[in-house]
Amino acid sequence: MKNEFLLADRETAEDLQAFLLRAKRMDADGLVRFRAYGQVLAAYVAPIFAGSLMDSGPTVIGLRTCELANDTEVEALVPIAAVLDRLARVLETDLWHAKDSKIVLPENARAAWAGITPPRAGWLQVDTLNETVLTEIAKAGITEVAQTLPESVGGPIAARIRGSIWGRAIEIGSKVPTGAAFVAAGLGFLTEKEDIAVYEVDNWVRLSSMHGHVIARVANDSL
């Protein structure tokens, strides 16, 4: 399996670039996981993630798909910054030349969140949430994190505080963690006044909009 791919066109490359720029703003040292078996490339990022598979903190994954120019097999986990550099070189010309636009990925990296595999089937829609609700929840969470974290707090304590906030349910009785709203907003998945579908399967929830998906374990207080 070669870790390289050719995007369908310039617009697709610009779309992937915009998605990864948002992901990098949320996690400057973040990684992206690419998977493709055919002509659809799935790009996964984790702006909120636990430090290890044994960590009880939340992991929230953002997913956006892109069209490829041909059938391709890809399985890779690489730095977002490296992919952005390659996309910038591809897009620096005014004309799109497919033969010169192949993205060749660097060597694979490692991250605990990449070993988490949400179910691919069995999802059932259980609710819808309006964009305005999710946006306000995201803003409130950001404010709470800023107000709660002491200036001199150490890394593990800061991670625990963020985890308690982003892992909490968005409202009593909900399985959707607050972090899912934050990631949906931060990755640009929310369109003004759009109704976002909420899906569940086992101990997972998913927010699906016209721009992408956010996948997370159910809220800590729902377990």
Q: Specify the biggest β-sheet.
A: 6 strands, antiparallel
CATH topology of the largest domain: DNA Polymerase III, Chain A, domain 2
CATH C-level name of the largest domain = Alpha Beta
Poorly predicted runs of 5 or more residues: none
The amount of beta strand, in percent, is 25-35%
Helix count, per DSSP? Answer: 5
Based on helices, strands and strand pairing, what is the structural class?
alpha+beta
Account of the 3D structure:
The protein has about 220 residues and is α+β, with helices and mostly antiparallel strands. It has 2 domains: about 5-115, DNA Polymerase III, Chain A, domain 2 (Roll), CATH 3.10.150; about 125-220, no CATH class. Helices cover about 30% and strands about 30% of the residues. The protein contains 5 helices and 8 strands, in the order βαββαββαααβββ. The protein has a 6-stranded antiparallel beta sheet. Strands 1-4 form a two-stranded antiparallel ribbon. A hairpin with a 2-residue loop joins strand 6 (about 195-200) and strand 7 (about 205-210). Helix 1 (about 10-25) packs antiparallel against helix 2 (about 80-90) and helix 3 packs across helix 5.
List keywords for this structure.
alpha+beta; 5 helices; 223 residues; six-stranded antiparallel beta sheet; two-stranded antiparallel ribbon; DNA Polymerase III, Chain A, domain 2
